[in-house]
Amino acid sequence: MIKCVSFDFDRTLAHVTPLIHHLVPKLLAEKGIHISVEEFKEKCIEMRINLPSHIKESFSRFGTLPKDERNQFLMEYNKARIAVLNLDIEDKEEITELKNWLAKQIFITQKKILYEDVIPTIRKLDSLGMKQYILSGNHSDGIIELLEQAGIIDFFQELITVDKYSPRKVRNFKILLDHSKYLPEDILHIGDDIITDGFGSKGYNINSIIIRRPEQLVFVKENENDFPVIAELSELFNFIK
Known about the structure:
Elements: E1 4-7, E2 14-17, H1 20-30, H2 37-49, H3 53-60, H4 67-83, H5 92-109, E3 111-114, H6 118-127, E4 131-136, H7 140-150, E5 158-161, H8 172-180, E6 187-191, H9 194-202, E7 207-211, E8 229-230
Parallel strand pairs: 1-4, 1-6, 4-5, 6-7, 7-8
Antiparallel strand pairs: 2-3
Helix pairs in contact: 1-2, 4-5
């Protein structure tokens, strides 16, 4: 019987808007350059799977980086996402200026917001007596800010994040077990990442569900059949018995 629910944060409770694979083609169209949403989406996935060496280390440590270093990383990460595009421009200086402009526009335009189904789901779980945790590979300050703004931070027993505990998110499932005092079979974890949220929790015998939000970028699809997959949070109540 499930007594405790833990949530990943990015792409599970919160998403970045506007979506990168829609924003960049729109910005390029303003400059007279046409790239389809699907083409750029595939380029983003390819880049994420094969991270450039100069941002690979920062990517793995993102949640533990100080704010100024995180902002610098985001700019470099955005530049890497733009760099994979084969822009049909002969002037190299013009290409560099365009790519830098795009990276800056992504940085200043995008923001995180909670999905619409988050607040009602969190409140319903609380009414059922479920203990709730955040278990995220992100930094705690941004999570706290969004949950406080939504008025739901007090529904969570604890935010287990990589800046507060292990910088390796998977190891923090042990923290969840230790702090919640529940057995693995009493806990249900929901997240979007097959590797960390799926097999990571499975390594501690914790139940897990993979969430696939509409238009969500999916970086790893292999072995998805090993886990139940839902499209919105309300579906998780089918797994609470």
